[in-house]
Amino acid sequence: MGRPPCCDKSNVKRGLWTAEEDAKILAYVSDHGPGNWTSVPKKAGLRRCGKSCRLRYTNYLRPNLKHDNFTPQEEELIINLHAAIGSRWSLIAQQLPGRTDNDVKNHWNTKLKKRLCGMGIDPVTHKPISQILHDYENIGGIPKPGTRIGTLNRDLKNAFMVKHEPHDGISGITNPSMIPIQSLSMEPLFSSHFNINSNNHSLELLAQFQAIKLVTDQASHCANLERFQPHLFSSEGSSSSSSCSSNVLQLNSQPVINPNCQTSSVPNTPCSPFSWSEFLLEDAFLPPNQQEQQDVQGLSYIESSSQLAQTEFNNIGNVTLEGVRDMGYSTYDYTNRGYPITSIGETNDAFGASSSSGSSFVEALLDRDSEMSWDFPSLLEEPYY
DNA sequence: AACTCCATCAACCGCGTGCAA
DNA sequence: CTTGCACGCGGTTGATGGAGT
Question: Looking at domain A9-61, what is its CATH homologous superfamily?
Answer without folding.
Answer: Homeodomain-like (1.10.10.60)
